[in-house]
Design brief:
140 residues, alpha+beta, Alpha-Beta Plaits, 2 domains, four-stranded antiparallel beta sheet, 4 helices, flat
Length: 140
């Protein structure tokens, strides 16, 4: 009976270790691989990454003051930006959408995502990523 308990304990320990390793790998994976996946998806849809795209960036902020400050900062940097109150949200009750025309380069978009994540630490908010409509290549 003691051997059965030891085997059961070891099996549980191994299962917990595997779960912990999986979580650690997921955390250590590049956080900005999503940018590369989205650009690849747009390319597969026929989008031309060398032509400008209207890119919209999304943020969640805790209060109107933080949302207003972020919008002002983004507008100074050349973005078109606006915020609105989101009734359904309690923690991040304000949503900011910022738009800018950009060429879609994986390293540049990853750097932008990293920068926006860092800025959100200061604003106590969350960067929710970006979206761009497919920009079809022109036939020559």
């Amino acid at each position: 009976m003691t051997v059965a308990y030891i085997l059961l304990f070891l099996g549980g320990a191994i299962a917990l270790a595997r779960i912990w390793i999986s979580i650690k790998r997921a955390r250590d994976r590049p956080a900005h691989s999503w940018d590369a996946k989205l650009i690849e998806k747009l390319r597969m849809e026929g989008s031309d990454p060398f032509q400008p795209h209207d890119v919209v960036f999304f943020f969640g902020l805790p209060d109107e003051e933080a949302a207003r400050r972020l919008v002002e900062m983004l507008v100074r940097e050349g973005y078109t930006a606006e915020f609105k109150h989101v009734e359904a949200q309690i923690e991040l009750a304000y949503s900011v959408h910022a738009q800018r025309s950009l060429r879609l380069s994986v390293p540049e978009m990853q750097a932008t995502s990293r920068r926006f994540n860092q800025i959100m630490v200061e604003f106590h908010g969350r960067y929710d990523g970006w979206a761009a409509a497919s920009n079809r290549r022109t036939q020559q």
